[in-house]
Every structure is written in structure tokens, then in C-alpha cells.
Amino acid sequence: MIKRCSVKDCKDPYDAKGFCKMHYVRNKTYGTPVPIKQCFGCRKEFPWNKIAFMNRAYCDECENLIRKYWDWLPSRLQSIQSHGVTVIWFINTLINQDFSCAICGLQRKDRKKFRNLCIDHDHNCCPGAYGCEKCVRGLLCDFCNLLIGRYENNPRIFDSVSSYLKKEVMPNAFC
User: Fold this and answer.
1) Rounded to 10 degrees, what is the CA torsion of 137, 138, 141, 142?
2) CA 51, 56, 59, 64 torsion-angle sign
3) I want to staple 118 with a disulfide (CB 3.0 to 4.6 A). Which of 16, 22, 139, 145 is the partner?
4) Residues 6+ apart with CB under 8 A from 103
5) Cβ within 8 Å of residue 113, ≥6 positions away
6) From CA 25, how far away is CA 31, in angstroms rounded?
């Protein structure tokens, strides 16, 4: 009969000192086989009793959410984290925005083409390509993100564009 790990609900075979290899290493590193960790997604504390998901400690709820919406996430998750927000914030914002751009409402049906959704942030708070959790506003398509980024410091330009588009078309004298 194979000896099993002494940690509750762990079915892995015994390796050393009554623990499987994972729990043995955690016991050696953290002083307990089931350390209390902060979820990388929601930042709640939970007993870390399983293998790390994507090299991070996620609670079951966050891990399931990430797996469910995996195809909607950017290919580089660092782009989300560099704005000071979590993957769970990104997924919840996607859901709240009905999987569409916050400005134009463009909704892509094909998830693979949706990867170019951008995290918009206030450049007055954080100049440059990345923001912080205080200045992140929402998710925009590439076009709207470029538009906002170009004219963010001069919001009156939007009023000018709006009034210009409402003008009547001038007859062409050469027709």
C-alpha cells in the first residue's frame, strides 16, 4: 500500500516527513505545509493547499474565473499587472462593459481578435505607457485608446470635432 501525504485532502504519495513533495517544500520554506497566502487575483487570504496556477497563488474562485475567461485575456498578463490592477479586475471590467469598448461600444464576437483591448489610464496621474490602480478608467479598443491618448490634454478638441461634423456640407463650386 502506498503511503499518502498527511495533509488533509491531498492524495499525492508520501515523499518525506509525512508530506508529499509539494507540501514538504512548503513546510520547509514557510514552516507549515499549508501556508496562508494572499490571492494574486482578489488579494484575499486563503490556505494555499494546491499547485500554483500560472506560477501564482490564486484562490479557487479566482482560478475558476481566469480559466473561464482565459481567451479574453491579453496574451501578456504583465500588461495588466503593469497598470497596478489584477487579472480579476480586468475580467470584471470586461463583464461590466459587456465585453465591449467603454467609448464606442464596439463588441467583438471573435475572442481571438479581442486581445487588442487596452487599459485606459489618466496620463495626468501617471505619464507614460502604464498607470496605477488610482488612475485606471476602463477598457478601450485600439482606436478609442489612441484617440483619447492623443487629445486627452485638450478636451475642447472633442467639442470642435463634434460641431464640425454637425455642419452642413458645403456645395462644391467645381461640380
Assistant:
1) 40
2) negative
3) 145
4) 140, 141, 144, 147, 148
5) none
6) 9
67-97 in b/e form (b: 16+ CB < 10 A) is: eebeebbbeeeeebeebbbbbbbbbebbeeb
Minimal CA–CA distance to 140: which of 126, 150, 155?
150
pLDDT, tens only, 129-151: 777 777 888 898 888 888 887 77
In the predicted model, what is the mean pLDDT of the chain? 80
Q: Contact at 8 Å (CB) between 131 and 125?
A: yes
Q: Identify whether the C-beta of residue 19 lies closer than 8 Å to the C-beta of residue 27.
A: yes
DSSP, res 19: B
Which cell goes with 146?
Answer: 489612441
pLDDT at 76 over 80: no
Residue 69: how many CA atoms within 13 Å on its side-chain side? 21
Question: How far apart are alpha carbons 123 and 136 in whole angstroms?
Answer: 10
Vertex 121 angle, CA 120 and 124, to 5°: 145
Instruction: Check the CA dihedral 115-67-37-135 and report its sign.
Output: positive
